[in-house]
Description:
The chain is of the alpha+beta class. The chain contains 10 helices and 13 strands. It has a 5-stranded antiparallel β-sheet with strand order 1-3-4-5-9. Strands 2-7-8-6 form a 4-stranded antiparallel β-sheet, covered by helices on one side. Strands 10-11 form a two-stranded antiparallel ribbon. Helix 1 packs parallel to helix 7. It starts with a helix and ends with a helix.
Amino acid sequence: xxxxxxLHLASQFVNIVCKGRIFKGPVIxxxxxxxxxxDFNGEYTISAASRGKEIKLTLVPYGNGKKSANKRKPLDIVxxxxxSGRFDFDKVAEMRKHxxxxxxxxxxxxxxLSYVDPRRFGKWQVGxxxxxxxxxCVLFEYDEFRRNVLENVKNPAFNKPICECLLNQKYFNGVGxxxxxxxxxRAGIPPFVSARSVLEPLTNxxxxxxxxxxxxxxxxxELCHTVPQEVVNLKGGGYDPWGRDKNFAIFIxxxxxxxxxxxxxxxxxxxxxxxxxxxxxxxxxxxxQVRGVKRFPKQANxxxxxxxxxxxxxSESSEEEEEEEEEVLTKGKKEDGGSKAKPKLARSSTKSxxxxxxxxxxxxxxxxxxxxxx
Length: 374
């Protein structure tokens, strides 16, 4: 499911492709969609903004100062992406199969901005605003987000395990399944400990008693802000298990915990899988369910392995170069001191295989054998 980094990246995408473009005509909804029609016509511009797990499109009438345009008011459409929502920008002839809401440009060749949602769990609200049921955004409203959590830490919602509490959008707006695993792993917090035992000490500024936390690491609320920032700063579109993003391998390489084979995993009380390392904590579900890791797109996996291999090979090459340099320096020092240095195996600079010195460099061994025979 797209989380706050993916929603923010989607808003950036919309602003880039819509910059300087004029849209014209009615907004067309697909026949299969049961969501509301968008009654908006004429010429207009489009801009986007995101907050947590929501994205807002603003349609502003464009009429070059005409009175008819001035009478029309801007229209906001608030989207929630569900499991598979996204925006695409294509030529009209290449419109996507699951495009459920479409905005057409005025210029030729005509282009279309489409809200695409294959699984149709997403939704939009015409004339809507940010949901009042969601708390401050962890990405853009950090101070308000932190205050909202710590002022309500006595609320029964925080009786739950920390891994389940992090998915409560009333307090952690924008955090989803992969983010919670990454946040808890980096904080060194077991997923099934009481949320209150983790968060309550933060209200007094004391040490996080009762929970094993890495001393040098930021607290869990700071990580709710900085970990999504890391995803936004990656080159790519963030979490994309459908393989639509050509840079998805970068995201896979960034993950430290989520969907990693070396990590443990367990379904929480809501049957949502959380990944972790070590002891899960005392509040594990009675019916423990362990899931298999998801298979990411083949192309992304191959690219990720290639990146890892390239990093390892470059690291090995640098180590070999350091060893060569150290060997040369040591040999030079011995020669300067007048002592005879024993010949060593030479390392090739082009291959990582060991090569023996030529026979001409080993006269001592032959003379020693002949001396023994005599």
